[in-house]
Amino acid sequence: STSYETGLTKTRSSFSEKFQLLMANFRAVDENFFDELEETLIAADVGFDMALKISDELQDEVRLTNAKSKKEVQNTIIEKLVDVYDRAGNGEDNTMHFAQTVQPSIFLLVGVNGVGKTTTIGKMADFYKKQGKKVLLAAADTFRAGATEQLVEWAKRDQVDIVTGKGSSDPAAVVFDGVKKAIDGDYDILFVDTAGRLQNNENLMRELEKMKKIITRQLPTAPQEVLLVLDATTGQNALQQARLFKDSTDVTGLVLTKLDGTAKGGIVLAIRQELHLPVKWVGLGEKVTDLAPFNADQFVYGLFK
Ligand code: GDP
Asked: What pTM, to 2 d.p., does this model score?
């Protein structure tokens, strides 16, 4: 869509500016060039060790292939970055896991406050509704003030159904009601918005486990997706959160939000390298269509365009 294009363009204009500058300044594949490449990667929040590693591997590759021209060198860099992303994975792809039998698929969104969980659910609900899926939302973030109202707004906008708690409901009760309605009403997908309170690891783990237990009790299989939402603009902080959540629950994939207008998109590689989790979606703005399935080739290629 056009807004996806604009979002991607915005991403390019900030994140990729440095890559474009690097190539604009290209004279020859010498020490100076690799120094600048390292600086570019570090500035993009790829991480220090990772930047050096990529640079080393590139030097070998350039020597091996005898790449000399700007175009050849640029292509080698693109191939290397995609290769680094692919190698860090476990062979999984970025597709969503749906229920294997005729029952609702449950997608749990987790992450700290403000990263974009509610917004992402609003966007994803629209995405799947347009594919003809019957979508239900569960507002199980009963802690953050206004979180339920915000999701109710999205439900209205998307024209999908929603289950909310009454007053200061227990999130577990909302999850229970959501799963029941999803089963009884033959919904294809139930999105669960969860609270982003982060006091300590144990608390978080307990809350998420409780939700999963409630779902499993009503449905034979566990949630098909636990998507960890991370704010790309927070760079290394996002990596910290990813570590904590990965230790606390079975995260199946990542959503990287706010990639529009950040120079820190390199965090995609840093997180992938350390935690081996697939990035499934990227958020590219605040509008309903500003969400796209992640594609490593497109992402890296886009940096140089
Ligand atoms: P939650 O607390 O995790 O549910 O976060 P929200 O969904 O309330 O989002 C927090 C803020 O981030 C809101 O102002 C959103 O509009 C904004 N936001 C979410 N995703 C994106 C994105 O991809 N790009 C931009 N620019 N803003 C986003």
From this structure: 0.89
